[in-house]
Design brief:
Rossmann fold; 2 domains; seven-stranded parallel beta sheet; 34% helix; globular; binds guanosine-5'-triphosphate; binds magnesium ion
């Protein structure tokens, strides 16, 4: 089984590309699974991916801090017959080469034969970084964003379809330090299986730097800055039930989504990713808003139009918001957005937790415990 570790900042397009990659591999007759990861416990991405692909999750901490759990899940995935497993790291996690890739490569009897390592980056933000323009976040969060890009041998410049002028993004070694010598950059629209074909080609080639140099880089990350960056981002996970016996649940869910995005855009110093999974008993729709998107953006609007396929009487809305704002304020903002909307619908926050992640504390890998599949 080959592990494809996918890092990169919040909202960079990891889940979208992984979903397309699994679909492409399945078309080719190869079995692919996913392991998702988050600081919280109520994950939009897990629920979204599970609709299409076998998906397991490491919750309550990043892969490096919950390394043993990751290894257990890799072993279970291998026993399940997967040939490829994509592991999507928390979008605020860094130092993955040292704390995940190298320990896995050292464990000879471990559950994976090969490891590839990709960092995904919204091409519009890569353009800003290379132009020396300010990034959307405070200094320590911007530090984290940059460090994530320094350590991976393969960078995928995602959302290429949204780049207005391709000349603004350099894929050769750049004076900004990204890409650095030895790093390869692929431009990608990750929304369809055809769009990720080149990426999958690179990941399937054991001689490509993505695999051959997966654990090679040691950028020497400053854990004080990294921890401060993680802490600056508040995390909100919530689930809201929308009931409208006489119809109107879709409109009420749409109002909730727009109110949360508008509230976070207004009150937070910066956004990481605000995402929603809206579901009835049969189907679901994912709606996202990220740092590079201006509200109201077309992706959010397109997502909201897809609510038409859901029931109009009862919906559940899972909310994952990561932004530079106090956790309590983020919680209040959700409570206000879920206040009685009128129009015959009632909204109830059925689960909710808001917090600031603790500083990263990589767990020393217990190589003796590493299970073989
Ligand atoms: N136009 C366009 N949109 C994309 C592309 N890739 C992702 N997106 C959109 O970007 C938003 C965020 O994508 P995700 O795949 O959820 O990003 P992520 O990196 O998994 O986010 P986190 O898990 O929160 O870190 C969603 O609205 C996606 O539809 C792309 O290549 N092109
Ligand atoms: Mg994701």
């Amino acid at each position: 089984m080959i592990l494809h570790l996918v890092g990169g900042f919040l909202g960079s397009g990891k889940t979208t590309a992984i979903g397309s990659a699994c679909a492409l591999l399945r078309q080719r007759g190869e079995a692919a699974s996913v392991i998702t990861n988050d600081q919280g416990t109520l994950l939009v991405d897990t629920a979204f991916l599970r609709g299409f692909h076998p998906t397991r999750e490491v919750t309550g901490g990043c892969f490096c801090c919950r390394y043993d759990r990751l290894v257990d899940l890799l072993a279970a995935t291998r026993r399940g017959g997967a040939q490829h497993v994509f592991a999507e790291a928390v979008g605020s996690c860094a130092d993955l080469a040292a704390t995940v890739v190298r320990p896995l490569l050292r464990s000879a009897a471990g559950p994976v034969e090969r490891v590839s390592f990709t960092a995904m980056v919204d091409a519009r933000l890569l353009a800003r970084l290379q132009a020396g323009e300010p990034l959307p976040w405070s200094g320590n969060v911007a530090y984290l964003f940059r460090e994530q890009l320094r350590e991976a041998p393969l960078l995928v410049a995602s959302k290429w379809d949204l780049v207005v002028d391709p000349r603004t993004v350099s894929i050769s070694v750049h004076r900004s330090g990204i890409p650095a010598p030895g790093q390869t950059v692929l431009r990608q629209d990750g929304r369809t299986p055809a769009g990720v074909a080149r990426w999958i080609g690179a990941l399937g080639d054991a001689g490509h730097p993505a695999t051959a140099a997966a654990g090679a880089c040691d950028p020497g990350i400053d854990y004080a800055r990294y921890g401060a960056g993680e802490e600056a981002l508040a995390w909100l996970d919530a689930e809201v039930r929308v009931d409208a016996a006489g119809g109107g649940a879709r409109a009420a869910a749409g109002r909730l989504v727009r109110a949360v995005i508008a509230g976070v855009s207004r009150e937070a110093d910066a956004i990481g990713h605000v995402k929603f999974l809206i579901r009835d008993h049969l189907r679901d729709v994912k709606v996202s808003h990220t740092a590079a998107d201006e509200p109201p953006d077309t992706a959010t609007a397109a997502g909201l139009r897809r609510l038409d396929r859901l029931s109009d009487r009862r919906l559940y809305v899972v909310v994952n918001a990561r932004a530079e704002i106090g956790a309590e304020r983020l919680q209040r903002l959700l409570d206000r957005a879920a206040a009685p909307p009128g129009g015959g619908a009632t909204l109830a926050v059925i689960r909710s937790a808001a917090f600031h992640p603790a500083p990263p504390l990589p767990a020393p890998p217990q190589l003796s415990r590493t299970a073989s599949g």
